Each structure stands twice: as C-alpha cells, then as structure tokens.
C-alpha cells in the first residue's frame, strides 16, 4: 500500500507544487489519481467530499487524514518525511524568514500571476477570449513584484535566504505558466531574478520531473 494518495492533475500549477516537492524529496511511495479538470471531475461529489471547495490537489492517508491546499500539503510532506526544504525548528529567525517569504509569494506574486494564467492559459483551453484589462493590471503587479525581488535577491540566493526551500518551489509552476503565456521577460530581464530562477529550475530533481512531463505530453499528442 502506498504511503498516501495524491488526487490532482499534472500541469495544474497547484498539483505541480506538490509533485515538485515530492521530486525534490526523492519520494515516490505514493499513488497519483488523475482528476480531469476539463471534464469537471474536481466538482464531482466524490472530490467534494475530499475538498469542500471542489479543488485540487488533495492527499489522503490510510489513517484517514485528508489534506487540501497545495502549500499546506507541501509543508506537511516536508515535515513528515524530513525533506530538506524547511528551516530547522531550532532556528527561530530562519523559520520566521521562511514564513515571511511564503506569505510574500502567496499574496504579492501568486495572486496576480494566477490571474494572468487564468486569462491567457485556462480561458484559451476553454475557447474563451481573455480579458485584456485584467491581464494588463495583473502584469503590472507582477512586474512590480519582480522589481522588488530583484533588489532583495542581490543579497541572497533564494527567496527565504541562503538555502533552497519550499518557498522557491512554490514559484516554479506559475513562473512556467508566465513563460508559456509569453511573459518570460519579467524573469529574464532582471539579472538577480534570472540567476535565482536558473538555480531553481536547473536542480536535478526538478529537471528530471519537468523533462518526464514534457516527454509524456509529447507522447500523448502522437
């Protein structure tokens, strides 16, 4: 029996946060159950029992524990399986800086970046036109965010300090989506941000997972 079951969809930015965390932790003892978003399976009665808002990802454990919300899942997995992606509890200052960086990512980056992804990626899949006003407003917020990040990354290698942590993983799926939507320049035009991104995206475990995903997507199109 696997250690737990992950309900989600590869390519979903929220699911991929969890998958990247597991990849970095070298953890494979789990079952991935696909939830088809295009078919509305996330709103099925079965999934609503797991996630009261009808979202993904969700993980369930044999002992009955059910967890939803990607960042909460990532943090629990890192603690439970001792992934080296969190500051030690004994380092109070590092833990505080991690919590601060996590809050910054969620409030100042993920919200506007998510709006761009919805308008330019999700709506395209659904055959709907994007709301250009929403995109423009969100892009301004993302640009402003990375202007600040450019200054902060002059003095540290990663978002929470000198070490790669979950906070850095949290950024990866939505930044990838920005590249797909044609907005990669927000990363590439800022030297410190670009260097940080290169350090993150070129980690062996992350490259291995992303390469496997690309190969699977290519095979599915044949």
Descriptive notes:
This protein is of the alpha+beta class and 222 residues long. It folds into 2 domains: 4-85, 3-Layer(aba) Sandwich (Glutaredoxin), CATH 3.40.30.10; 92-208, Glutathione S-transferase Yfyf (Class Pi), Chain A, domain 2. It contains 9 helices and 4 strands. Strands 2-1-3-4 form a 4-stranded mixed sheet, covered by helices on one side. Strand 1, helix 1 (13-25) and strand 2 (31-34) form a beta-alpha-beta unit. Helix 1 crosses helix 6 (166-180). It catalyses: RX + glutathione = an S-substituted glutathione + a halide anion + H(+).
**Uncertain runs:** none
The strand line-up of the biggest sheet is 2-1-3-4
Mean pLDDT: 96
Strand content: 5-15%
**Main beta-sheet strand count, sense and barrel state:** 4 strands, mixed
Protein name: glutathione transferase
Catalytic activity: RX + glutathione = an S-substituted glutathione + a halide anion + H(+)
EC number: 2.5.1.18
Keywords: Transferase
């Amino acid at each position: 029996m696997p250690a737990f079951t992950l309900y989600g969809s590869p390519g979903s930015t929220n699911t991929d946060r969890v998958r990247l965390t597991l990849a970095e932790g070298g953890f494979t003892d789990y079952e991935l159950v696909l939830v088809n978003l295009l078919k509305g399976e996330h709103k099925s009665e079965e999934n609503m029992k797991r996630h009261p808002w009808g979202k993904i990802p969700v993980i369930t454990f044999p002992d009955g524990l059910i967890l939803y919300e990607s960042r909460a899942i990532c943090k629990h997995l890192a603690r439970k399986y001792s992934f080296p992606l969190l500051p030690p509890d004994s380092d109070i200052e590092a833990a505080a800086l991690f919590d601060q960086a996590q809050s910054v990512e969620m409030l100042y980056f993920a919200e506007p970046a998510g709006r761009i992804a919805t308008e330019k990626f999700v709506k395209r899949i659904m055959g709907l036109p994007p709301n250009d006003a929403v995109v423009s407003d969100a892009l301004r917020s993302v640009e402003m965010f990375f202007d600040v990040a450019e200054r902060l990354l002059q003095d540290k290698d990663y978002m929470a300090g000198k070490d790669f942590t979950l906070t850095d993983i949290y950024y990866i799926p939505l930044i990838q989506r920005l590249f797909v939507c044609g907005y990669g320049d927000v990363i590439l035009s800022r030297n410190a941000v670009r260097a940080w991104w290169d350090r993150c995206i070129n980690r062996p475990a992350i490259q291995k997972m992303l390469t496997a995903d690309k190969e699977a997507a290519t095979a599915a199109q044949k």
